[in-house]
Design a protein that fits this description.
With 325 residues, the chain is mainly α. It contains 17 helices and two strands. It has helices spanning 3-14, 24-40, 44-58, 70-73, 76-94, 99-118, 126-130, 132-137, 148-152, 155-169, 179-193, 200-211, 214-220, 231-247, 252-280, 287-303, 307-324, and strands at residues 123-124, 145-146. Strands 1-2 form a two-stranded antiparallel ribbon. The longest helix is centred in the C-terminal third of the chain and has 29 residues, at 252-280. The chain is elongated, with a radius of gyration of 23 Å. It starts with a helix and ends with a helix.
């Protein structure tokens, strides 16, 4: 790796410490050098390795404490991160990624999530905030508001994210620890927590994931020894239902009518397979299975909130519970 990058990585490692003398000026200089070095690289593998290493270091909690600064937010480095992630998101949709690309995809998604969740202050321009005339004119050349959310979570990213969920993850099967489940699941959890983003474009693709067999099949793959769910299980059992529960409220009647009967059928299979085991096998304490069933019950309760769906829910589940008992 280039010696210039090595010097800048040493600054990042200093930021991991609780006490550090690193300043905003040091960080800006560091990012200037990193961008200069990246622009001079010709080997794509080296570029992905450098970006992965830097994003991994930047993602630590102590590192992020200086990153509310507006000059840092506007730095070209973060534009490079955003463009690279969108490029990898597109490639993940259509082609196999190399090991280095998968690692970079994973690390950038983690950094974007941390920046948007924990260092996402909206910084208003002093002049537009205090001058009504300027606010009325809405001058494009003035940055009225800047945040990591506005830098990364843009329309093109949501379009590509919607495509990979709808046309790939809801259709194609991957191993339980595939990077797609890790990175896309992380973004779904981010979109579940943030406001003022275009999450509506993701509702139908996520619904398609829940309507696929992958939700039900994820329960069937939970092993007796598991204490936590795999990334694939977490994506289908938690991330997708939680997103719909919290972000699909304006379409709740439609969603409940669409999913209720299907999820009652899912419940019959899930409870037959797992609930009796938890009740009768006293020696087995499967934390992952208990958590998965709890999330499933929570989502069932959400689907039953509308009057029409409640009738299906009560009728279907009462009969099933009688049979199970």
């Amino acid at each position: 790796m280039n010696s210039l990058i090595q010097r800048h990585l040493s600054i990042l490692k200093q930021l991991r410490k609780d006490q550090t003398n690193v300043t905003i000026e040091n960080l800006i200089e560091m990012f200037d050098g990193i961008v200069l070095c990246l622009n001079g690289m010709r080997n794509r593998v080296d570029i992905f390795r450098v970006l992965s290493s830097i994003c991994n270091d930047l993602s630590s909690v102590n590192t992020l404490k200086l990153f509310d600064n507006v000059d840092l937010m506007k730095h070209e480095f973060f534009l490079i991160i955003g463009r690279t992630f969108e490029m990898l998101l597109t490639k993940a949709r259509y082609m196999l990624m190399t090991k280095e690309e998968e690692e970079c995809f994973h690390e950038i998604s983690y950094l974007i999530t941390n920046l948007c969740l924990y260092k996402n202050k909206s910084i208003k321009c002093f002049y537009t905030a205090s001058n009504e005339l300027l606010k009325m004119n809405n001058l494009n050349q003035l940055d009225d508001q800047i945040s990591y959310q506005n830098i990364f979570l843009i329309e093109t990213l949501f379009t590509k994210l919607s495509s990979i969920i709808n046309n790939d993850l809801s259709v194609n099967d991957y191993n339980s620890y595939h990077v797609k489940y890790k990175a896309i699941g992380r973004l779904i959890r981010l979109c579940t927590k943030l406001n003022d983003i275009n999450f509506h474009i993701l509702i139908d693709p996520v619904l398609n994931c829940l309507r696929s067999n992958f939700y039900r099949d994820s329960f069937q793959t939970i092993e007796p020894w598991q204490t936590i769910l795999t990334p694939k299980q977490l994506f289908f059992i938690h991330d997708c239902p939680e997103f719909i529960r919290l972000r699909g409220q304006k379409r709740q009647d439609e969603i409940s009518n669409l999913l209720c009967k299907l999820f009652i059928e899912y419940s019959k299979q899930i409870f037959e397979q797992h609930l009796s085991m938890l009740l009768h096998d006293k020696g087995i304490f499967n934390l992952a299975k208990m958590q998965a069933i709890a999330w499933h019950a929570e989502f069932l309760n959400h689907l039953a909130l509308t009057p029409k769906s409640r009738v299906h829910y009560i009728t279907g589940m009462n009969q099933h519970m009688k049979d199970l008992l």
